[in-house]
Design brief:
With 186 residues, the chain is mainly beta. Helices cover 2% and strands 63% of the residues. A hairpin with a 6-residue loop joins strand 6 and strand 7.
Length: 186
């Protein structure tokens, strides 16, 4: 940025998104029901809970969920539901990181962009357990204090205060906008 006699820059400390990342993962769990399963009738994941913590070059998402497997046994003559609580740790690398942020002010968060979901469940080859494939995805953010540089006029805004700016829009131009679309990330 070229500097002139009339303008100079000022550094401002502000909170900003200083790190972002996203990670999709597929994991396989093995659950051993009380009876040897004959077939799988359904598999669901419920009670998903998680938190985000800063770790190394990324953000760890630490969580738990319950796997419920509805299965038949005794040559498809009986059914039961096997329940198991599983825990996980996903390290989400930061694909963007502002190197000038103040580390002591970091606040991290995670959002499950794809809740854990069972995409496949099969009786294991030995016939005593169930193999479950789960997909999940998280987007993470780190907010921290950082410096930004702004151009300032040392004598104030002067003639800018008295001007009436017309940005070419009328209030009626926004009547047909869908408010749900305004919150989406581009």
């Amino acid at each position: 940025m070229a500097m002139t006699d009339k303008h100079h820059c000022r550094e401002i400390i502000t909170k900003a998104i200083c790190g972002k990342g996203r990670k999709f993962s597929t994991v396989t769990h093995t659950v051993t029901p009380p009876h040897n399963p004959t077939s799988i009738l359904g598999a669901w994941i419920i009670n998903h809970q998680y938190e985000a913590v800063r770790a190394g070059d990324g953000i760890e998402v630490i969580g738990t969920y319950d796997i419920n497997i509805w299965y038949s046994y005794d040559k498809n003559t009986q059914t039961d539901v096997a329940k198991e609580t599983l825990s996980y740790v996903d390290l989400v690398p930061l694909s963007y990181l502002d190197p000038k942020h103040r580390a002591s002010t970091e606040e991290v968060s995670a959002e499950a962009t794809q809740e854990p979901n069972c995409v496949e469940a099969n009786v294991s080859s030995n016939g005593t357990s169930v193999s479950i494939r789960v997909e999940r995805e998280f987007a993470v953010e780190m907010v921290a204090e950082t410096k930004v540089c702004v151009k300032v006029c040392p004598n104030g805004c002067g003639d800018l205060d008295d001007k009436d700016y017309d940005f070419g829009g009328e209030d009626s131009d926004f009547e047909d906008l869908d408010p749900d679309l305004l919150d989406e990330e581009l």
